[in-house]
Amino acid sequence: MKPNAARAGMARLGVRLALLGALIATPAAAGDRALLDIIGYSPDGRYFAFEEYGIQDGSGFAYSSIYIVDLPADKWVYASPYRAQADETNTDRPLADVRAEARAAAEEKLEPLAIGEPADILVLLGDGVANADGKQLTFSIPSWGPPGATQEGSESTLSLTTFPADSPEPCEDYIGQKAVGYALALDENGQTRELHRDKVLPKSRGCTLDYRLYAVVERFSGGRGRVAILSSYPFGFEGPDRRFLAVPLDR
Amino acid sequence: MRLAAAVVLFAALSGASASAADRALVELIGYSPDGRYFTYEEFGTHDGSGAPFAEITIVDLDADPDPVVQPPTFAAEGGEDLLLRPIRSEARDRAQTELDRLAITEPAQYVSMVGDGVTGADGEALRFGQPGSGPIGEVYDDRLVTLESFPTESTTGCDTTYYPDERALGLALNVWVGGVRRLLHSDPLQLPAWRGCPIDYRLHAVVLPYNGDISRAVTLISVYTTGWEGADRTFMAIALGK
User: On the CB side of B12, how many CA atoms lie within 13 Å of its CA?
Assistant: First the structure.
């Protein structure tokens, strides 16, 4: 992430502990494991949209956030993310309603950008896979050959490393340690390319405790536009929350 | 019978009969609140004609299914000049009344998958469990699902024009829990007509409802049939939780 690209950074800020103080006041927001819905790409592959959604552990409030990423620029498009959430006035609001509200709001961008080209999941480390640390993922480009075939020589490997990182949040006060940042490298064609390295974490990332590689997707029509999806785990009072970050691979 | 694919609705939109080497993708639509019904969409573009297609399938996980029953289908004409997006929307519109009736509102989650870009996986075994709510990466109730295929007979016959040696395959599915094997499903020696002429299978993914109820686990299986430009891929679902 480029240090001067504040919005570029925000493209990866799937994590929203808006204010840790707010969480202290309402500890209900902890320990929820957001799920991911990949909305798709624009026809030219420039824009990629996904939704993270779930129910906050303590409050039981449903929430949904839709991110639209300008992949070449590695930043959110204007007005993204589109968020919806239940609140004290409507605590039992169903998740489906909240998701529909976020989707309806996001349509103001999804529609003009014609985001609807499906994403093909090249590799996905499901949350039900035991004993996986999520620090490395290897994937290839599918081929049209025999069932399960991939293109010869197209193998790539993503490697994720983490390290203590400065944060605008007083994480040492909150969690007794510095927040955790990440670096992501792509090894392919005999070369290793660093895609991202955190410096000071953006405020919206909160006091992140860890990261895991979650998936790699590409456009259904093929071509460039591969995106790595990372799980990030901000501190929560009932266990780490999980949010998602999107990192373009083909900038 | 443990084949849970008691399909109550199968909305299909196709510009042409499934022809050339199309590799369908799948999108999870969700479960009913009680976990009884699981719904997914498969979609893609036919290789030869370029015609888009989309199909929505609703599976009754509690049914005592009869795998020889052909899923009811709802088809509409498409064409190679149509785009995938509106065809998918049309399929969704056609299924919406049934989706509403069954209250398919609960999200589904992949808990394990063999992605299309995974090299070297044979698609015959997949570990899965229930995501934990404690430490990062915690998994409860680790299990293994395995798939075997064997020669069988196709009711519809196999197109031997380009694949003279192909023969229909059936599948058997086992789940291993704590080292104990449990047979979930084994195809009959003659496949029901709606299965066509499968020539290969691969485990694609294991899915759970949002609440992680492993008794509602479903495996999505890639089913390959002969096409003009290679093996076409579609999907079928089998419940793992019974």
Answer: 14
